[in-house]
């Protein structure tokens, strides 16, 4: 059996190893991540630094070409001899320049190194000339290997403009050996190398001989490493993931673009070189793991000893208690401990003290049991006599219970008949309640219809009043029209008199008044017709007045009849209201009666149910009384057995005393 000390040591060692391993792995991961990040940032900084240096050098060479071109345009001297002298001086002044030359649109060509082209040479068909003309600004051509010197050369070309037209192109062949030496000598990390690509992604500088440029041309990156180099440099300025290089080693690659010529400069560093600095971390972790594990082992040994020592003492004490040895107490040093061991020791001490008390109590109880058994013997004899008396009384009670059961069964039958009759009354009451509600609804409908009739009669009465008012207005208008016809009659009479007088005056005038007499005659005729029309209008107005008076009289009679009708209908409405109130009161009484009948029905059901229960209970009681009678007889026999058992109980109490004495107190 393994001891607790060994288990604690093993557990703590496992936890320590696991914790240190996890922390070491996490620390190694974070450290390696930071170291890798710093290394790659340094690699990218190197690319940016050398890119800036190359860009500055190219810009300086381009600035020289621009100054030469601006000077030629400014002085306007395009004759061959002057240009030759000037271009020769500028060629000699620049240590990196092989030749400075100028080609015109008519294929005239002047070179500062004294080179004279053949007659079929056409400068306008050269790449440097076309590039400058197309871009109309300073351009850097793709590099090439000079056949004579074997050095890498580029051409910087600038268009010569006059009146916004290109009249020629100035070119300068520049050796880039300085850039080659700069990149080849750059070592930002051990075992790292640099490379340089032109604007067409042709390899200008690379340590691998198969990628190096030759006089036949430059190698494009798409042609090497199965095109992986293209993917590596797809995002300029971003560190790509490690990639297997031409020699089979995994490397990180960084690059940056040179703005002036759109070249790409970059560096490659082996992954092993980046991880080299992390080897020290691994050794440090292993050393720390060994030291910390040794310390943990020592501390765990002392810790396990301090824990197991009191447990061993408690184990020995528990073995003594198992053999019923309760004489000794637990060491107070163990009880005074403030941890789980101290609580365990205190609990053991409490158990021992409890066992001591219990054993004493059992011993006392055994004596009491012996005394009680003697009393039980005497009591059992008395109980046997009482049981015989109870048996005779139980027989009498059983006879009375049978008589009571018969009376209860008769009562239950009568209550069932009453319940049936109450149920019929309840159903009839509910039917009356339903009819009362229907009558109340019809009464309310009749009341609503009477209210509608009253409203309609009121509208008829108001309409009759409006008609009467209109007839009164027409009567007034007829009176005014009668007055107007009287005026028309008077005017017609006056007009007739005037026409007569005019005729008389016309007759007096003789021939001159004949025309006037004719007019006067016509006027008199019109006056007579007007008088006649006025008379007819007056008669019509008189007839209308008679009709209007008859209509007014009829309207007054109708208004009176409508008023009487409204009063009669209101009386009927009040009667319906009284009927509705009476019906509501009747319904309330019926509802109260229905509720009371339902309550009585429920109570009668309860009574019937209770009677049934009483019948069952009485039946059970009768049976139980008979059982009690039989049980009483059995009890008499049992009391004799109790007396016999009491003797046995005394013997058991004596045996219990003997058992308790086996405890060592």
From TrEMBL:
The keyword Transmembrane helix applies. The keyword Transmembrane applies. It holds the Pfam family HAMP. Its main location: membrane. It comes from the Bacteria. Residues 379-650 form the Methyl-accepting transducer domain. SUPFAM superfamilies: Methyl-accepting chemotaxis protein (MCP) signaling domain (SSF58104), Sensory domain-like (SSF103190). One of its GO terms (biological process) is chemotaxis. The chain crosses the membrane at residues 6-31, 281-303. Keywords: Cell membrane, Chemotaxis, Coiled coil, Membrane, Transducer, Transmembrane, Transmembrane helix. It is found in: Cell membrane. Residues 384-418 form a coiled coil. Residues 305-360 form the HAMP domain. GO terms for cellular component: plasma membrane. It is a multi-pass membrane protein. Belongs to the methyl-accepting chemotaxis (MCP) protein family. This is Methyl-accepting chemotaxis protein. It comes from Anaerosolibacter carboniphilus.
